[in-house]
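Here is the promised in-class demo. Please do not try to memorize the tokens; focus on the logic of going from shape to residues.
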């Protein structure tokens, strides 16, 4: 059992009598409390264009995480598709919005171009998403599952 030291109320940590049990519940409560304190102290957030990195999540597909709201169960990110990129078919646990910022994509025969909004509705799978010449997408949708046995992330992140 590990004791957590008190660093004062402004630290966001709990009192010294709090202990971390074997499964870490107390630690997660402290983390959640700290995040809540940060949100309360800063009611808005600007994410600058140079503040994050692009990660390769599949052949010719890059992802730049923008924001995650774990409590609400959604995330937002950019998806950069290089020419010839394909995103495998996948289900949607809730509504996913995909705004085409540049380029063009095709999903199940529907073409979405710059400025178009593609919406995938809850409970409906869609086929392979392709981009012949490349595209930049803004996506807001359900958090990708952390468990590899749970469907939802087409690249099994």
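The designed amino acids, position by position:
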């Amino acid at each position: 059992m590990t004791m957590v030291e008190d660093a004062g109320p402004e630290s966001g940590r709990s009192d010294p009598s709090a202990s971390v049990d074997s499964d870490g519940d107390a630690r997660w409560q402290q983390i959640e409390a700290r995040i809540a304190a940060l949100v309360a102290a800063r009611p808005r957030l600007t994410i600058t264009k140079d503040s994050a990195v692009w990660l390769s999540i599949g052949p010719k597909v890059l992802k730049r995480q923008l924001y995650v709201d774990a409590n609400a169960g959604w995330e937002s990110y950019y998806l950069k598709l290089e020419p010839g990129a394909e995103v495998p078919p996948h289900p949607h646990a809730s509504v996913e919005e995909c705004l085409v910022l540049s380029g063009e994509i095709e999903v199940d025969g529907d073409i979405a171009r710059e400025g178009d909004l593609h919406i995938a509705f809850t409970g409906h799978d869609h086929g392979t998403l392709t981009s012949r010449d490349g595209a930049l997408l803004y996506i807001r949708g359900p958090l990708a599952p952390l468990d590899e046995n749970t469907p939802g992330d087409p690249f099994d992140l």
